[in-house]
Amino acid sequence: MTAFTLIELLVVISIIAILMALLLPALRSGRDSARAIMCSSNLRQLGVVLPMYTNDHDNLLPPAIMGTLSPGDWHKFIAHYLDKDKYDRFGLDYLPCPVEVGSYNSQFVTWGSWGSVGSYGVNYAGNGTKPFGYWPTENGPENNGHGSKRITEIAAQEFLAADATLPYIESPAWLPFQSDFDGDNNLDTYRTSNYGPWLYNQMEPRHAKAANFLFVDGAIQRIPLEDWLNGENILW
């Protein structure tokens, strides 16, 4: 059998290298798409469980958080509907996003227990104007708290939950998008303190600069960061 000459061997290696260069981006894109689909499947599961909770609680959603500092308490109220312990956290202890939380921007560092609550945040406003409200204690929204909305009364354009870096997502107006601290040519929020940093008011576009959103009807939409920043989707 005739052996390869050095030139023939180099030609084969070159062809393999060219094929790898052509195929790797497609393989990477396929992997990223698969991860985004897995993430949307997790949110779809949440979209099944939340109505189950509301059916047992006069159509009311659980609170986003309880107390002055909270690691995200809504997961405690839905855990047993998934046959989990209340301390098992949705999106962390089970059904996590396959993309690491905080991976969109290397400058983001999750803060204490807030960053440990999982991959998803709920649509929250402490004044009770959004689907998920605030309870001072487990007794409910008494004593200056604001309860969550009834799922039957939520406007179609409002979302229930989405990819996030913290357990809740605030309106973009909470911290106005005024600066491009991360140098990606998109205006963002960034608070450097004991309470941050927080990007995009907790929404994280970790799937090709887009985030999965769960709506009240169970639909999942992938919304690009640009649309979020420019108000192309009426989410608020």
What is Rg? 22 Å
Return the domain count: 1
- Biggest beta-sheet profile: 5 strands, mixed
**What fraction, in percent, of the residue positions are helical?**
25-40%
Account of the 3D structure:
It is a single chain. By secondary structure, this protein is of the alpha/beta class. It has one domain (7-230). The protein is built from 3 helices and 7 strands; from the N terminus they run H-E-H-E-E-E-E-E-E-H.
Summarize the structure.
The protein is of the alpha/beta class. Helices cover 26% and strands 11% of the residues.
Tell me the layout of helices and strands.
Layout: H1 6-55, E1 65-66, H2 74-78, E2 120-123, E3 134-135, E4 159-163, E5 168-169, E6 210-215, E7 220-224, H3 225-230
Parallel strand pairs: 1-3, 2-5
Antiparallel strand pairs: 2-4, 4-6, 6-7
Question: What features would you highlight for this structure?
Answer:
five-stranded mixed beta sheet, 236 residues, 26% helix, two-stranded parallel sheet, 7 strands, alpha/beta, 3 helices, elongated, single chain
